[in-house]
Design brief:
heterodimer, A: about 120 residues, mainly beta, 7-stranded mixed β-sheet, 4-stranded antiparallel β-sheet, 11 strands, globular, B: about 110 residues, about 50% strand
Amino acid sequence: EVQLVESGGGLVQPGGSLSLSCAASGFTFSDHYMDWVRQAPGKGLEWVGRIRNKASSFTTQYAASVKGRFTISRDDSKSSLLLQMNSLITEDTAVYYCARAILRAGATTFDFWGQGALVTVSS
Amino acid sequence: DIQMTQSPSSVSASVGDRVTITCRASQSINSWLAWYQQKPGKAPKLLIYTASSLQSGVPSRFSGSGSGTDFTLTISSLQPEDFATYYCQQSKSFPLTFGGGTKVEIK
C-alpha cells in the first residue's frame, strides 16, 4: 500500500524557517518524481514545486511565489522527501501536501497524496 | 502561466442528479488535464487523468471529456459520498496550475 506521511509542521514567526518531511512507503520511491502542493485555509490548491528522480538528474522546479526561499530535496536511501522553507511570510500559511507524480501520455497527475502538514506563519 | 477557470464555483444538487462541472484553460493544454475530488480535512483524490481516463478504483459514474481549452467532469448519478469540492489541474506547462474548485453541495 502506497503511503505518504508528512511531518514537521507547526507555528513559525515571519522571517523564520521550517522544514517538512514526507516519508514514503509501499512503492519504489527512487523511481518517481515528487511534488509539494499547498492549500491556504479555505482556499484552493497551489503547486509549490517538484523534484525529479536520479534518471532526470534530481532537477527541481518551483512556483514563482516560493522560488529562492524554498528548497526541495530527497533522500532515496530513506525514501524521504524534504521541503526546506526559509524567509517565511504570512501568505505561506497553508496545509502542505507531498504528492507522487505520475507521467502518462506526457501528462502529470498526482495519484497519491499525504495527509498534509499545517504550517502557520504568524507573530 | 496557464489560468484554469472552473464553473460553477458551487452547485446544489440532489442524490441521483446528473452534475456537470466545467474547466477552461487560458490556452490549449491538449488533453493534459486531471480532475480531483477533495473532502473537508482530507487530501485530494485523483479521479480522471488525461482529460477522460478513469483512475483505477474510481466509480464509473465519473467521466471526463474535452481537449484543447474546454473540459467537463460529469457525475452521472450523484451519490451521498460525492458531496465534495472538485478541482481541475493542467500539466501542459510549469507552473502546474489548478482551477479554483467547484463545491458540490446537498440541495
